[in-house]
Design a protein that fits this description.
The structure is a homotetramer. By secondary structure, chain A is α/β, with parallel strands linked by helices. Chain A folds into 2 domains: about 1-35, no CATH class; about 35-210, Beta-carbonic Anhydrase, Chain A (3-Layer(aba) Sandwich). In chain A, about 45% of the residues lie in helices and about 15% in strands. Chain A contains 9 helices and 6 strands, in the order αβαβαβααααααβββ. Chain A has a 6-stranded mixed beta sheet with strand order 2-1-3-4-5-6, covered by helices on one side. In chain A, strand 4 (about 190-195) and strand 5 form a beta hairpin. The termini of chain A are far apart. Chains in contact: A-B, A-C, A-D, B-C, B-D, C-D. The interface between B and C is small, with 9 and 9 residues.
Chain lengths: ~210, ~210, ~210, ~210
């Protein structure tokens, strides 16, 4: 049998959670189950194990609809009948759940961004192969690489982390239902960048630059 | 300007996090930044705002590499040069991070599963359209619908929530690098289902059935 | 044990508040504790979770003495030895704290007002029962219903939201110590109405009509 | 004309709020207006200008249904057809909004508690008069005074602040619909005490004593 039982330390923690967090919040969890979710915001962030948006924002259960993928990327609108998991998540959040905010949160030391930089600068030919899922996924950020290629080498990757957030936001606006919701002031878009090392959070501010929150 | 500043209540909560959780753990966050992540497990779960795996398992920062999409689905292996965000996340977790566990966690009251059921039973023609991202994404679970279509109506959706976990695990095994890692005992697969209402967690056990954890 | 510990997410947020907002303002909080409060105004508003007067007016800690009840109602003066929580709050604000302003702030989409309208128009017999606390409380607004009953149906509830503010102000003036303080120009009364949807604030102006602030 | 226009400094702050906080959150405010509120918790706290629960808990708009009265008191269940504003608020929160938590939050330096202590210990005959709204309201806490009368004088008022929270919780349980909801695990009760001077928050813990949060 290929499927294995859960490691015991996770089983123990789960039982601890059920006896404490679940027990202390069971009335709310029942309501959430019976009435459905009504999140105020969708967050698109990275799969990276070091970045948990629910912790940073002290989020209650039911507060954020969260999609996590490599490098918090959103592809451009492409209604071609293919499987687009990120586009499906965005569509569900905006058209079904009517979230009021769409937050893209990038982070420092992102392995996906570093891989994209290596690929685009010719240092990672294996990512250029058609069979590389990570490479093909990071193609979304290829146009972004052009914006940083002229910078001093040591500045390029941090700049690309910012650009990844911008490209995702730009691509979000290519979805007609997002552009319409933004136009109708039913949805607002936000761009954030989290620094793992010093904990700082910056956001795209009024003038379009990243500024400390 | 299309991009908006972050709502104030989130800014305040972030500063509260930085002054407490970050301050209390900064030594660890610095190491995570400098040495990189080393997660033991990857978790694939749903975007749903009511299901946070980090809470249920008391996860430390750096412990789980988490991909979240609609209905915790994994498509079959398809190295066709297209953009597959889920496959990219799985590839990165297994081939770059060498996680030891791959956990698929479904949940009750899943809007994606309910939509898939409606679509496959002919009650949601809008999801059948080529332009429906949610519909096309849920096509991954279409073969699973066949397994529940003969059940009494009220049992079909709960059964489909279980089947979604099984289909994802089956599809994971179509990835050669996953099959190889499982074969080499470097990776184990796990299937979980979380009930939002009563907090119960079940898993695919030794005999292949879902049993309480 | 019937009393439960506080949910963890609130505990975390509290600690965040203590490490930031409290820490940054501790000198002022100490003075407020040692010297007592000296609010300039009392505000009477609704319990509704969507209306926070401290946010709308950027209120400092110690600035507003706030009573919140269903539909921001004040009963007429009735020194009958019974328990009148609203009258007690008003008495304390005017006679002990000597507030200079008494502000009644109503709001749109008020569940209490809608209930009162249903009750008075015969559509909610359960609110007519002696045991309905909400029904008996909304009796305060029964005389106000007569003022709107002749309007076109769709105008009645918005009109009743305005009337609720007027009735409360009229009832405030039946309290001898309020009438005396107003007469002596030691206290002024204000009537406001907040629209949740568009954020607009209107007030009872010079000519007695609601006008934009 | 008795009703006065709003002071200019409040008008200015309101316009500032509308141009910033409202503008940044308008999508959410529209949803709250159109879909109605769905607060997770009701909070009963004091009118005191120095205690703002939304600040302490970083609350989002729509998160807490808040009733504020003198000394955060709840009278016993008394379906006598009279006007009970606090009972109406509690009834609306539990039976209409189905809140999952009922939080009573007391605080230090409470003028109402000090008045109750003076009245019960014979030092404030004016509060004993039938016409004193504050005195009659504080009668709710008279049984609580007996529990502290034997303590050393300087400990009595702080102890009475704790007792006020306990009495309110005990009285809440005399409401049949609250007892039933607690029994059915659809509602949980919480007792908190906030110290204005040092910012500390204590709660009634597992063993029934107040402990730091």
């Amino acid at each position: 049998m290929t499927i294995r039982p859960l490691p015991r330390y996770l089983v123990q923690r789960y039982h601890g959670w059920h006896a404490t967090t679940y027990a202390d919040n069971s009335a709310w969890y029942r309501r959430l189950a019976d009435e459905g979710q009504r999140p105020r915001a969708m967050v698109i962030s990275c799969c990276d194990s070091r970045v948990h948006v629910t912790s940073i924002f002290g989020a209650d259960t039911g507060e954020f609809f969260i999609h996590r993928n490599i490098a918090n990327l959103v592809p451009p609108y492409a209604p071609d009948g293919e499987q687009h998991g990120t586009s499906a998540a965005v569509e569900y959040a905006v058209r079904e759940l009517h979230v009021s905010h769409l937050i893209v949160m990038g982070h420092s030391q992102c392995g996906g961004i570093a891989g994209c930089h290596a690929m685009c600068s010719g240092q990672a030919p294996e990512l250029d192969e058609a069979t590389s899922f990570v490479g093909r996924w990071m193609d979304i950020l290829r146009p972004g690489y052009e914006r940083v290629a002229g910078l001093p080498p040591e500045e390029q990757i941090p700049a690309l982390e910012q650009v990844a957030v911008r490209v995702s936001l730009e691509n979000l606006l290519t979805f007609p239902f997002i552009a319409a919701a933004v136009e109708a002031r039913e949805l607002s878009l936000h761009g954030l960048l989290h620094d793992i090392r010093n904990g700082q959070l910056t956001m795209i501010g009024e003038d379009g630059h990243f500024v400390p929150v």
